Amino acid sequence: MPFNQQLTDELNLILKFPNKSLLQGLKIHHDADPAVIDAAQRLYDKGIVSQPDGGYLTDLGHDLAEHAQVIQSALTIT
């Protein structure tokens, strides 16, 4: 199954979370791009982030972020 736009939006949002500290998160504001707001809600519904507007990555979210970074790194041409 290829990545559809919703999955791409979710992956892009996961990659925006700080990866240096477990004590840092994101706040998605109400005036953000609707696709980002929707992606945050879907990630929350899936148990990947702690709040519907971002918050912190859960344990599952941290695992996914690590995998997403590896995929991004492998596919990025330098």
Name its key features.
78 residues, three-stranded antiparallel sheet, mainly alpha
Largest sheet: 3 strands, antiparallel
The residue-averaged pLDDT reads 93
- How would you write the strand order of the largest sheet? 1-3-2
Number of strands: 3
Q: What are the secondary-structure elements, in order, as H or E?
A: HEHEEH
Strand content: 5-15%
Distance between the termini: 27 Å
Put simply, the count of helices is 3
Low-confidence stretches: none
Tell me, briefly, the overall form. globular
Roughly how many Å is the radius of gyration? 12 Å
* SS class: mainly alpha
Assembly classification: single chain
Fold topology:
Elements: H1 5-16, E1 26-27, H2 34-45, E2 49-51, E3 54-57, H3 59-75
Helix pairs in contact: 1-2
Describe the protein in words.
- This protein is mainly alpha-helical.
- The chain is built from 3 helices and 3 strands; from the N terminus they run H-E-H-E-E-H.
- Helix 1 packs across helix 2.
- The chain is globular, with a radius of gyration of 12 Å.
- It starts with a helix and ends with a helix.
- The relative contact order is 0.18.
